[in-house]
Design a protein that fits this description.
Elements lengths: L2 H13 L6 H6 L7 E2 L2 E2 L1 E2 L10 H14 L9 H21 L7 E4 L2 H14 L8 E5 L8 H7 L5 E5 L9 H5 L6 E7 L11 H10 L3 E5 L11 H4 L3 E5 L10 E5 L1 H4 L12 E4 L4 E3 L13 H15 L3 H19 L5 E4 L8 E6 L4 H9 L3 E2 L1 E3 L4 H6 L5 E5 L6 H18 L1
Parallel strand pairs: 3-15, 5-6, 5-7, 7-8, 8-9
Antiparallel strand pairs: 1-2, 4-10, 9-10, 11-12, 13-14, 14-17, 16-17
């Protein structure tokens, strides 16, 4: 798929939407037609990574077959074509999340690197001083905990944690009481990868801004399920990973308001992020290139643009509605299983269900159900503080995407009943 075709796809998506037909959608994803252990694959691990439509796979092949060249540096034909495609993808991302400018879109390896970039550059700048504070929550992914801890070793900065309720929701009253004159940042997840809870992110941002505090939002689990508008949210930073948005691994996005990105120092040094270099001094390029040292994941950036174009073919409301039907049906059927308990029961959830079954370790659930070709995630899901909150070693997790079906939910239920029968 050439960049010309990519732009054409975006144009088509704006002119008219595809009718939502889950069986036709599944035909776009080659891996969904394979077998595992002699059974049709039932892929319910979308919170870990999503599968890729053929258009995304073909775009990577196309880049290496017809367009492979380094970008931003060459005047020859292939370099110009690759540069146009890569920078075109940046524009697609900008439109997708409604950023003010494409220069506010920084390509990174994923949400993890995006948070590391902000943590590292903030702690190296004069934004944080000894004794300052950051607010995070008890439901954060490790990627929104560990980078702060590592960088706080350089300065005496404190993490303050918003507690969560038994239902898996943030305690907003406790959140309001965490702010002091030393609070400099709120770094918060939009949608929990373990609990499925969709946080009232706009309210959270408004509360912080009234205190004069910037907000970083981890949107990795939000963008696949709902339309995100960073200007409407008024977040100061927003991060997500491409592989959870039906794109490739190794590519992600850091959005930041221009006024804040311009004040941050470079994250890494190298080629393509400089204006001048001498042995005495180097000067740096404008945003976003200031943060993109070295040769980037060119084909990944292009393929992420194609993945977004693919989603743009649909009405996002249809995607959300279908996933809600999967969540509702799966929840009702799971609750019929004796001894099964769902962890995370907020009424405002994405299509993620974590659960435990009395007397059966989640690892056993995952291992046995895999024999029927059903892919679940088991473990702590990179959210050990959540497991500690509920006094659990691990959970089993089923996470749905818009290509999953009610019939696959039925297979999940049958598989879990088989597990219980084996242990009884």
């Amino acid at each position: 798929m050439s960049f010309t075709e990519t732009k054409s796809l975006l144009k088509i998506a704006k002119q008219g939407k595809r009718v939502f037909d889950v069986l036709k959608i599944r035909d776009d994803f080659p891996i969904l037609h394979r077998t595992v252990n002699g059974k049709p694959l039932v892929y319910l691990d979308n919170a870990a990574t999503t599968q890729k439509p053929k258009a995304v796979i073909d775009s990577i092949t196309n880049y290496y077959t017809y367009e492979n060249a380094n970008i931003h540096r060459g005047l020859h034909f292939l370099s110009e074509v690759a540069t146009e495609a890569f920078e075109g993808a940046r524009l697609i991302v900008k439109e997708f999340i409604n950023a003010m400018s494409a220069s506010e879109i920084v390509f990174v390896k994923g949400a993890t690197e995006a948070i590391n970039l902000i943590a590292n550059t903030m702690c190296r700048s004069d934004i944080f001083k000894s004794g300052d504070e950051i607010i995070i929550s008890q439901m954060e992914h490790h990627a929104n905990i560990v980078p702060w801890q590592i960088n706080f070793q350089k300065k005496n900065i404190k993490l303050k944690v918003i507690p969560i309720t038994d239902e898996g929701e943030l305690d907003l009253d406790a959140y309001r009481n965490l702010f002091t004159e030393r609070t400099k940042l709120v770094s918060i997840v939009h949608t929990s990868n373990s609990l499925g809870t969709v946080n009232p992110i706009k309210e959270i941002i408004e509360i912080a801004h009234k205190e004069g505090v910037q907000v970083l939002v981890d949107g990795s689990q939000a963008v696949p399920h709902r339309k995100v508008d960073v200007q409407d949210l008024d977040c100061d930073y927003f991060v997500f990973s491409g592989h959870k948005l039906f794109g490739p691994t190794g590519i992600g996005v850091l959005y930041g308001k221009t006024k804040y990105l311009e004040k941050l120092p470079p994250y890494q040094g190298g080629g393509d992020m400089i204006r001048t270099v001498s042995f005495e001094k180097s000067t740096f390029d404008d945003i976003p290139h200031k943060f993109e040292a070295g040769t980037p994941n060119i084909e990944g950036g292009i393929a992420l643009g194609v993945a977004i174009n693919y989603l743009n073919e649909f009405n996002f409301g249809d995607i959300t509605s279908h996933e809600q039907s999967l969540l509702d049906y799966a929840t009702s059927e799971l609750l019929k299983i004796n001894g099964l308990r769902i962890i995370g029961t907020s009424p405002n959830k994405a299509s993620v269900i974590s659960f435990v079954i009395d007397g059966i370790h989640p690892y056993d659930i995952g291992t046995i159900i895999d024999t029927d070709g059903i892919a679940l995630r088991t473990g702590h899901h990179c959210t050990q503080p959540i497991m500690q909150r509920y006094n659990l070693p691990a959970t089993a997790r089923a996470s749905f995407a818009f290509y999953n079906t009610l019939e696959e939910v039925d297979k999940l239920i049958a598989g879990l009943n088989k597990v219980i029968k084996m242990f009884s």
